[in-house]
Amino acid sequence: MRRRYQISKQRALEQFRRLASEKNPSLQMVLPLAQVVAWLQQGVGHLLRQAGLELMSLVVEEEVKQLCGERHQQHAARQAHRWGKEAGYCVVDGQKVPIQRTRVRCQQSGEVPLGSYELFRRNAVLDESVWSKMLLGLSTRNYGEVVKDFTTAYGVEKSATSEHFIVASREKLKGLMERKLSDLRLCAMLIDGTEYKQQHFIVALGIGYDGRKTVLGLRQGATENATVVGELFKDLQERGVDFSQPRLYVLDGSPALHKAVRQYAGENALIQRCQLHIADRDPRFPEGWNVPSRASPYEPGSLGSGMAG
Fold first, then answer.
1. 98/3 Cα distance (integer angstroms)
2. Is residue 295 part of a domain?
3. What is d(CA 16, CA 31) in angstroms, rounded to the nearest whole number?
4. Domain residue limits at 195
5. 216: exposed, middle or buried (Cβ count in 10 Å: 0-12, 13-18, 19+)
6. Dihedral Cα 279, 281, 285, 288, nearest 10 deg
7. What CA–CA distance (Å, rounded) separates 233 from 237?
């Protein structure tokens, strides 16, 4: 359930977007050449970052002007009044940068949130930046040293980075588990379980007619049982997977997987046990036996060699 302050900030953001689309006021930023040259001493990147901060302040002040009118002038459509300044921040390249923002208040509702300011400080942008960099191998310990471009930036400490990564991962997983699958044309589905931290994860991987692989969904359970597998298949069906289409299902031999496939796909399921699992578990196969996933199916000594010629 969203809190009242979250709703008011979302409304302010929508109001600011209407202002930009309907009135579309022009902005003009004037910078002294001496200041530009001073910023350039530290590189073009530093110039762009500092100019970006100036532009953010200009955008916020434009919204304030639309709400409160010009300073020291009568404004018939005045909706609120300026109420000093306070310290705030904006998110730039995965870091929080301090800025000064104008406060706005009205007699009826008190503090008025500014949509432009909320747009500049969205945590979703920060979470996404942390998530993408950590997936490339950047650790939480070294995150601040790598991404900190502003001397006054904060929010890049190890604990804060971990929190942003957790939030971003939660959103990514939610998107994975809720996205629609009705547009996928699948010719095969691989279903298997993997163990992590004494928990089983049942994963369904779809293979399209174009050969593209797509993770369809997963379920966590203490064991690879029929209940967990059934919940996974039910979820896939609700999100658009058509089990009435003839399709190849590659399983590891688990009775729970076999039962769920038969329950949902029936006779339309062409079930194939994964020969890699067979070779690894069946004592009748000698050590080092080749399987099609490891070698050419027609290589001498492989499982498919008997089909050649």
1. 25
2. no
3. 25
4. 186-290
5. buried
6. 60
7. 6
**C-beta separation of 126 from 94 below 8 A:** yes
Note whether 205 and 227 are same-domain residues: yes
The Cα 216–Cα 206 span in angstroms is 6
Does residue 194 lie within any of the structural domains?
yes
Is the torsion defined by CA of 61, 67, 72, 73 positive or negative?
positive
DSSP state of 72: T
Asked whether residue 1 falls in the same domain as residue 116, the answer is yes
Tell me which of 75, 98, 121 is where a domain ends: 121
Q: What is the pLDDT of residues 121-138, one digit of tens each?
A: 887 878 888 888 888 888
Which residues have a Cβ under 8 Å from the Cβ of 201 and sit 6 or more positions away? 193, 194, 195, 218, 219, 220
Kindly list the distances between the CA atom of residue 276 and the CA atoms of 54, 211, 268, 285, 304, in Å, as whole numbers in the listed order. Answer: 60, 20, 24, 11, 12
- Three-state SS at 167: helix
* Overall number of domains in the chain: 3
At 138-187, the pLDDT tens digits run 888 888 777 777 777 877 888 888 888 888 888 888 888 899 998 999 99
Residue 68 lies in a domain: yes
Q: 0.90 exceeded by the pTM?
A: no
- Supply the CATH number for residue 281's domain: 3.30.420.40
Query: Does 225 share its domain with 284?
Result: yes
Evaluate whether residue 299 is within a structural domain.
no
Residue 264 near residue 252 (C-beta atoms within 8 A): no
Whether residues 227 and 148 fall in one domain: no
Rg over CA atoms, the chain: 29
Q: 């279903």: which residue's tokens?
A: 191
Amino acid at 193: G
Helix orientation angle between 123-135 and 140-147, rounded to the nearest 10 degrees: 110
Q: Which amino acid is at 114?
A: L
Q: Two tokens at 270? A: 């062409």
Region for residue 210 given its phi and psi (left: phi exceeds 0; alpha: psi -120 to 50; beta: otherwise): alpha
